Amino acid sequence: MKAGKLSLEFLEELLNGINVKDPRVVLGAKPGEDAALIDFDNKYLVTKTDPITFATDLIGWYVVQVNANDLAVMGATPKWIMVTLLLPEGISENEVKEIFRQLIDACDKLNVTLIGGHTEITYQLPRPIAIGSMIGEVTKDRVVYTSGASPGDSILLTKGIALEGTAILAREAEFDLRKAGVSTEVVEHAKSLLFKPGISVLQEASIACDTVRVSAMHDPTEGGLATGLMELAKGAKVGLTVEASKIPILPECSLFCSALGLDPMGLIASGSLIATVSPTDAPKLINAWKQLGIKGYEIGHITELSEGLTINTDHGSEHLPFFERDELARFLAKD
């Protein structure tokens, strides 16, 4: 099998073998959903685990951000995190201290408490790997499911794609980009996209829940926007149509993908929030985001399941592109 996520079909086959014995598990392992929900009286406990395997220079910071995002799209507030650090032989004490500094700094900024985890030097590991387990909470009237989208809903997207993938390429593939003719100035600016506009979606998810009735939210990570849309549709058992001309592709992303032969639609896209709302609420939410400096775009709408997943391009209606693995993973596999 190739590097990247398991296919949704195979994952669903594996998850079907799970027996949920505790009735407090409101939402367990399910393809497309971002986190699990456990009933705790008047609230839900929300839990998620996610690894960082692509990035290396800010791995401690990344692991907090991506796990917090998966709670935010459920309408939840991240509260606590446990982190497992698998470190390669030969790593220095200063490098380990830097990872912990990043962890603590990221937690402080999101008001999340690092409550424990595990560290070890791992045999034959080529690079550090961080696995986060984030815990948060949400009131029962505020929870949002990825599977909640309905035909007729508008599909909204914040910021643009692919924020995380573009920033990682700037940091991990600088030599290749420079060799392809990309200027140092553009590469350096792309590195800063991690922080401005940033890969956290906590603010825009919270604004969405405060402003309108959100039927679904999702955090497009590995496999990019195309995979995020596919996961949302599969979870809700619906179809969808998006307009290629309305999808905001960051100029740095377009340039990097052109230089390296990648497709922006399949590049890891943390930092953008997918949300579905009623068509009448879409302008209201986009305006609410705008008031706080967050760009929002209406890129398509939810359809009936029978209509499939399509994208309208200059060449007409086409199937939404499918990516067996993230474009970043495909690029790094060449090394």
Task: Provide a descriptive summary of the structure in words.
Strands 8-10-7-11-9-12-13 form a seven-stranded mixed sheet, with helices on both faces. It has eleven helices and 13 strands. With about 325 residues, it is α+β, with helices and mostly antiparallel strands. It has helices at about 10-15, 60-70, 95-110, 165-170, 175-180, 185-190, 200-210, 225-235, 250-260, 280-290, 325-330; strands at about 25, 35-40, 45-50, 75-90, 115-120, 130-140, 155-160, 215-220, 240-245, 275, 295-305, 310-315, 315-320. The radius of gyration is 19 Å and the shape is globular. Helix 4 (about 165-170) crosses helix 6 (about 185-190) and helix 7 (about 200-210) crosses helix 10. It folds into two domains: about 20-140, PurM-like, N-terminal domain (60s Ribosomal Protein L30, Chain: A, 2-Layer Sandwich), CATH 3.30.1330; about 145-330, PurM-like C-terminal domain (Phosphoribosyl-aminoimidazole Synthetase, Chain A, domain 2), CATH 3.90.650.10. Strand 2 and strand 3 (about 45-50) form a beta hairpin.
Query: CATH topology of the largest domain, what is it called?
Result: Phosphoribosyl-aminoimidazole Synthetase, Chain A, domain 2
The assigned CATH architecture of the largest domain is Alpha-Beta Complex
Q: Helix tally?
A: 11
Strand content: 25-35%
Work out the oligomeric state of the chains in this entry. single chain
Secondary-structure content class: alpha+beta
Q: What's the total count of β strands?
A: 13
CATH superfamily of the largest domain: PurM-like C-terminal domain
Shape: globular
Q: Which regions are unreliable across 5 or more consecutive residues at pLDDT < 50?
A: none
CATH class value of the largest domain: Alpha Beta
Q: How is the largest sheet built, in terms of strand order?
A: 8-10-7-11-9-12-13
pLDDT averaged over residues: 93
